[in-house]
Amino acid sequence: MAFRVLTRTATGSQQQQQLKVLSDLLIRSFSSGPKNVGFIGLGNMGGPMASNLMAKGHKLHVFDISKDAKDSLKAKGAATYDNVAELAKASDFVVSMLPNNDIVADTYDTIINGGGVKSQTIFIDSSTIDPNVAKAVQKKVKAAGATFVDAPVSGGVPGAKNATLTFMVGGTADEYQAVKELLEGMGKKITHCGGYGMGQAAKVCNNMMLGISMCGLAECMNLAIRLGLDAKVFADIVNASTGRSWASEVNNPVPGIIPTAPAASDYAGGFATGLITKDLGIASAVATSSNSPIPLGALTHQIYRTLMAKGLANKDFSVVYDFLKNTEGK
Amino acid sequence: MAFRVLTRTATGSQQQQQLKVLSDLLIRSFSSGPKNVGFIGLGNMGGPMASNLMAKGHKLHVFDISKDAKDSLKAKGAATYDNVAELAKASDFVVSMLPNNDIVADTYDTIINGGGVKSQTIFIDSSTIDPNVAKAVQKKVKAAGATFVDAPVSGGVPGAKNATLTFMVGGTADEYQAVKELLEGMGKKITHCGGYGMGQAAKVCNNMMLGISMCGLAECMNLAIRLGLDAKVFADIVNASTGRSWASEVNNPVPGIIPTAPAASDYAGGFATGLITKDLGIASAVATSSNSPIPLGALTHQIYRTLMAKGLANKDFSVVYDFLKNTEGK
Amino acid sequence: MAFRVLTRTATGSQQQQQLKVLSDLLIRSFSSGPKNVGFIGLGNMGGPMASNLMAKGHKLHVFDISKDAKDSLKAKGAATYDNVAELAKASDFVVSMLPNNDIVADTYDTIINGGGVKSQTIFIDSSTIDPNVAKAVQKKVKAAGATFVDAPVSGGVPGAKNATLTFMVGGTADEYQAVKELLEGMGKKITHCGGYGMGQAAKVCNNMMLGISMCGLAECMNLAIRLGLDAKVFADIVNASTGRSWASEVNNPVPGIIPTAPAASDYAGGFATGLITKDLGIASAVATSSNSPIPLGALTHQIYRTLMAKGLANKDFSVVYDFLKNTEGK
Amino acid sequence: MAFRVLTRTATGSQQQQQLKVLSDLLIRSFSSGPKNVGFIGLGNMGGPMASNLMAKGHKLHVFDISKDAKDSLKAKGAATYDNVAELAKASDFVVSMLPNNDIVADTYDTIINGGGVKSQTIFIDSSTIDPNVAKAVQKKVKAAGATFVDAPVSGGVPGAKNATLTFMVGGTADEYQAVKELLEGMGKKITHCGGYGMGQAAKVCNNMMLGISMCGLAECMNLAIRLGLDAKVFADIVNASTGRSWASEVNNPVPGIIPTAPAASDYAGGFATGLITKDLGIASAVATSSNSPIPLGALTHQIYRTLMAKGLANKDFSVVYDFLKNTEGK
């Protein structure tokens, strides 16, 4: 790990301060002994992620609004907190895994206002939120003297349980190096996406593409079947042709094509319609704020929103095929 | 090659007739000597395809409305015709490669009405047309006593030149076997998609997916870049994630990501916007006639139609990125 | 009524022929006595239209594939036919009211091939079909020596019953004058839209706008209600503002806003989803053939197609509100 | 004006407080003498609105970030301020006319934190913002002891200049009565839309419908013209038919149909593409937060966003016709 050169125009005392921050990062990064890790948000994702960190030998300091969720980690040896600022004071790293923009922003305000920020602490937000919110929180944490990176994940609940998540990290190259080892305790692929907010940006753009691919594939499979093609034959043709995608290869939405896909079990499990809809909502928001045209992304968002309105929020997002196909005879 | 059992309810003389047709197919299929092959339509695709067949030793009988196109093949040894019925009379196989529904339908009417159909001739239409038109032509050719299969291609002009096309064949299993060897003289992958029209159906559904993927990718790349992501970094993330597709891996629409992609040379070459628009038009037509909802397919069609209106018909279809990206400052 | 000047370059005998045709038109147009009127297609629309013509004193000659439909008119005094060519021979005017492109084309082929075309007969097709098909039929009828105009209607079954239909006529100014009086027996507004096919073009473009307005209004009403607005208050605001449309003023899709609208009676009656979907299909086809971008029209088409797939073909097209609104709690 | 009955369960002192608030409202509403009116935001809209209030005899207290804008009002007799809290202290009513959510929220925070809120002051925000932001600001102002209503406008710069704006007011019935007279000094139609935020909700939903109507009309006019219809003839047909809308009657996007429409002067003036895009952005945001499907609204948003990307932000939003029509030959 090579640190970037110090800012040339810094004054002597600024340089000393910079050196201190860098050496702190170095020490935490290189020392492979157990750390004090705060974990905020112990839901379907956060719970198993925190457990995996404990399995690596780290000391966990945990918070959730649900007492049951905290007790579940306490039983494995974690310290529990009623106050996120106190939790932060006790931690070298703090990982947050929270449901939305507002809760992330409020949580960090509470930590900062409660005096929970220490200069050597690295905050890692693994929630999926608006990149602009991530940037704003980073600024506040930095102003309070510590480090903050965004590191949203893909891989879902199975990835959280099996420590096979992908982390998309937004921060400096040094900060990326400083969090990599810790994140490897919860995932198998840690990607550096760019500066602050770029982890969130990468996730939201990738997932917009995923939603478009799945809706498009659902339309194509339905049309192919209605034109008389055998579903399996056509799926194989697509996978050997220019129409192929992750969706077509791994999560074909037609029941019976891929035995392990959610379509085979009435669209249970997988990546919930509610979650892709949330991600597409973030995509819409950042497309609006950056004035970027996303015609297919916006339409896909509306299609998934219609599925939500029909009560399909908890089904795998491949259920869009079931929604589009005719329930009436030809 | 195992032939299907004869129709059980056939009378004796019907069975004899069936046997004769099958044995004709067998003879033509197994005899690997040169054939008399008619070729109708010698454009950017048909010209090189016909040349490849000549290179395999076949005797070519060719027709085109352009005298220059015919003369070009004549110089290589082909016999030229002014009349497609006469051409068909001289041929064991006839391959047609024509621009649209109406021209295909008219050409086969002319052949049939001109007495060009012999019972042992196999007609192979490699044009990209509406599956319903292909089915209708098949019925007429069959009624006139011969065999007709649809076999549209993918791979574009380079595939035609290098004999690396993919053929998507619609017909019976026996008919597929009967045309396979000949088509291998022009392509490297010959797929059996199902009954009559299913070659066309497979092509149009695959290409609808391709158009959706490309438009979606263009939106995602543009959004990612405007959010501050490095284009190359984000392209790599997508290709390692759930957003990946043929488009993202082979034909990324942002200049500079893939050196061999059309985006690198001002969207020259590749798969023309005019052609994907045509294919999406066929998709729209068959979706209407089969009452199949194709929200993203229809929107993609409109986007490409708008590009056509802006004079981009001859650019590679990845030019949609250039169309969507802001020409104004942020 | 002022006739256009005769073609200057016509020869003497051509001029005589032209004069004869014009005087025929004049005679039929000005003579207000009863005519022999053929009527082909006696369904929900055609049946009452034919009855209204009888009520005006015309002698009706009718055909339908349903014997019951014919018998119903026979009971009122119409002559019935098994053969449309024979029907045409007996008629001064022939009105056709048929379900789709193919049936219209086949019917006129049968009339022409059966020798049913007399030079003084005026054929009026009131079916809703592709403008290009209308043009093609006009050419054939003209080649056979008679006159053909397209005159699709709006106003639905109530308009057919009450003789309050709007007719959109495509033909020359003289032909428009020649058919106006007869059509006034079935409608109250007879519009001249332009040359051959332009009646169909006007209908399909107007109805595409209607579909877009209704879908858009359904979205807006649903959004307004979910944001907390009172539906009636918001409907009044829209009607007094820039968002107003025929749909908002006459056929608001939210139950309870307009007592006479189909929404008030579970979307029964009105303009069926199946019919607007058919019209949007024609719009898509002509937009494809003329390479005209119709992003909202195409999306509206797909939305209505999805409603069809959900079994809503017979409900008024305002049922799209019911489809979009959440069935789940907020 | 009839006030609502007092809250029945209120204690004696609460009732006294309520009575005082109501009587304050009454006094301000009924006294028709000149008021002290604060005005924040003196741009293209706010400037003329403030001038109109001065013309009615009110004493104006004005703020803008532009000194020129303030000086322009000062020359007419207004008092100018560098501090919005001081401005508010001097005012009976405060009208704000600001560009976006964040500036509105910041401005009211500054007023509240600066001690500018007096119990008898009525704040009227005429900016176009997210209804949820309006609700949040109302809560803060109420908590600080004063009254806040949202009252966005339609009518554009001409309406602002000629005092013919429409105001859409969100607040209680009494509050609506209390602001009505003042607003009549700037507009000719003052609508009560419902509780807090409902003025904004009504505006955004109406304008979403307006955007959809205009895009749809542009498609239909373009398609009609390409099919061969005369633009003026078709426009008249639509206006007499079910496709009619405010857009078709008042702002037809085809040059030459309506002499007073922006289309007649190269899309100058009118309602800017940048503004409808902003409104559609708010619609998208509230549709996301309320999980309401808006397929056509979202697509219209993307189309206008594409126009923005092409540098058309300052053209009237009917320029979408010019964007869609073919620049290439048919």
From TrEMBL, chains A, B, C, D:
It is an enzyme of class 1 (oxidoreductase). The active site is at K203. Coiled coil: none annotated. Residues 197-322 form the 3-hydroxyisobutyrate dehydrogenase-like NAD-binding domain. One of its GO terms (molecular function) is 3-hydroxyisobutyrate dehydrogenase activity. Keywords: Branched-chain amino acid catabolism, Mitochondrion, NAD, Oxidoreductase, Transit peptide. Belongs to the HIBADH-related family. 3-hydroxyisobutyrate dehydrogenase subfamily. This is 3-hydroxyisobutyrate dehydrogenase. It comes from Anopheles dirus.
